[in-house]
Amino acid sequence: MDGGRLSEIRPGDDRARAEWEALLEREGIRRDRHLDYTVGLYDEEDRLVATGSCFADTLRCLAVDGARRGEGLLGRIVSHLVELLMEQDRPRLFLHTRSDRTPFLSGLGFYEVVRRDGISLMENRRDGFEKFLRDLSGSARPGRSAALVMNANPFTLGHRFLVERAAAENDSVHLFVVSDDVSLVPFEDRFALVKAGCDGLGNVALHRTEGYMISQAVFPSYFLEDEDAAVTAQARLDAALFERIASVLGVTRRYVGEEPFSRVTRLYNEVMALGLPNAGIELVVVPRLERDGRAVSASEVRRRIKEGDVEAVRPLVPPATYDYFFTERGREAVRRIRSASEVVHH
Fold first, then answer.
1. In this prediction, what percent of the chain has a pLDDT beyond 70?
2. Which helix (DSSP H) or strand (DSSP E) does residue 48 occupy?
3. pLDDT, tens digit, for every residue of 13-61?
4. What SS3 state is found at 34?
5. Is 313 helix (H, G, I), strand (E, B) or coil?
6. 295-298 long-range contacts, Cβ below 8 Å, gap at least 24?
7. Cα gap 71→53, rounded to integer Å
8. 294 partner at 20 to 30 Å CA-CA among 191, 224, 257, 286?
């Protein structure tokens, strides 16, 4: 196809959205729930022949009409999305794909980071993950080491309870805070609250995940059959990445909180419990801290804020987290929580 027209497919354009959804369906792709921007490539007869989307620093919902493959159409879509994200100061880009598609995407400037069970994580930096591991290796400590990964949206006394347990049972603890900035509490604020909340725990080192520990908000499920399949694939990829991270830090335990409510997190933990021991890593599941018979969780904190009662979170969070919600940035987070359609993690 010579030329062709690239055009944004906007949420309010019913005709364009219907054509886009039809193309995704023909190509066996489910519409992703998390999309910031979608573009379409139209032929000379104004028919949609290729599309792609992005969310945060990930590319997703990449599709080409089956009759037009081999014409370099996806290359135009990917180039457009990469240029757009670079203009938004997002130089580090990721995508997830079926592993049999990695050779083609490698030709578009993406490099495989890890694969498991036919799913691959790719990024646009040749040695990004290796550099991440080299930087982490300087944090390795002698003795028994453990790790935790948390979003902390926001940091609660439940998080503190989990970290204290790990710190008491190990010589050193590596605490990774999910850096994807898609939560109601911004990443830099979450990281600062985790740091303040862990004050006094001298054997705990904080790290940013830098996109290499996969958050449930960012992991795309558009090429998987259903939500459980997406969670399972995510957990297995996360385990593969974590095994590499654990090897450079000497980590032999990963701590997680018991999950009585969230089906997604519970399934995630079950997959990790099956996979990590094969790499010599014990998964330690810690019962939740409770207050008045209810588990202390970030979801509960957000629920109380959404209902208009910031004061009611005081028994559930460290002083630094409570005080944060009365700062200028914290009040912005409160407004986002109150305007969000869903604040409880299921």
1. 95
2. strand 48-55
3. 999 999 999 999 998 888 887 899 999 999 999 999 999 999 989 999 9
4. coil
5. helix
6. 295/158, 295/260, 295/261, 296/156, 296/157, 296/158, 296/161, 297/156, 297/158, 297/261, 297/345, 298/151, 298/152, 298/153, 298/154, 298/155, 298/156, 298/158, 298/159, 298/345
7. 19
8. 191
Distances (CA, A) of 8 to 20, 137, 138, 220, 326: 11, 43, 45, 20, 39
- Where do the domains of the chain lie, and which CATH numbers do they carry? 5-91 (3.40.630.30), 97-126 (no CATH), 130-339 (3.40.50.620)
For the chain, helix, strand, coil in percent to 5 are 40, 20, 35
Work out the number of other CB atoms within 10 angstroms of the CB of residue 237: 22
User: Residue 337 is which amino acid?
Assistant: I
- How many residues would you count in the chain? 346
Q: Rounded to the nearest 5°, which phi and psi values hold at 103?
A: -60, -40
Q: What is the mean pLDDT of residues 96-100?
A: 87
Question: What's the chain's average pLDDT?
Answer: 91
Tell me the C-alpha distance between 11 and 19, whole Å.
12
**Residue 61: which region, alpha, beta or left (left: phi > 0; alpha: psi -120 to 50)?**
left
Residues 228, 234, 239: CA angle, nearest 5 degrees: 130
pTM of the model: 0.89
Peptide bond into 154 cis (omega under 30): yes
Q: How far apart are CA 204 and CA 62, in angstroms?
A: 41
b vs e for 75-110, b when ≥16 Cβ sit within 10 Å of the residue's Cβ?
bbbbebbbeebeeeeeeebbbbbeeeebeebeebbb
- Tokens for 313, please give them: 């979170």
Amino acid at 225: E
Q: Which of 7, 79, 80, 73 is nearest to 46 (CA)?
A: 7
Q: What angle do CA 179, 237, 226 make, to 5 degrees?
A: 100
Let me know how many helices (H) and strands (E) the chain has, helices first.
Answer: 11, 14
Q: What is the pLDDT of residue 220?
A: 60
